[in-house]
Design goal:
Layout (H helix, E strand, L loop, with lengths): L1 H12 L5 H11 L5 H22 L3 H19 L1
């Protein structure tokens, strides 16, 4: 899908790309009608990034659980 490919390219470029440049490039290629689809695909990429960051973030509860599990395994191993 072209819209997804354009969105991925814009995402990979980061903040180096402006909306004006994207519109100009799409107009040259005759793909200006893809702009709404590209925007939706770009939003999906941002959402995926945010969810991944949130998922990888270690909360205090997770850290406490990890430590307790390590201590429990050591206790079991010594008996």
């Amino acid at each position: 899908m072209k819209a997804a490919e354009y969105a991925q390219a814009i995402y990979d470029a980061g903040e180096k790309v402006s909306v004006k440049h994207v519109q100009e490039a799409l107009a040259r290629r005759g793909h200006i009608k893809l702009m709404p689809q590209i925007y939706r695909e770009y939003e999906k990429l941002l959402l995926r990034r945010d969810r991944l960051e949130a998922h990888q973030k270690i909360t205090p509860t997770q850290e406490r659980t990890r430590i307790l599990l390590e201590l429990y395994k050591k206790l079991i191993a010594t008996h």
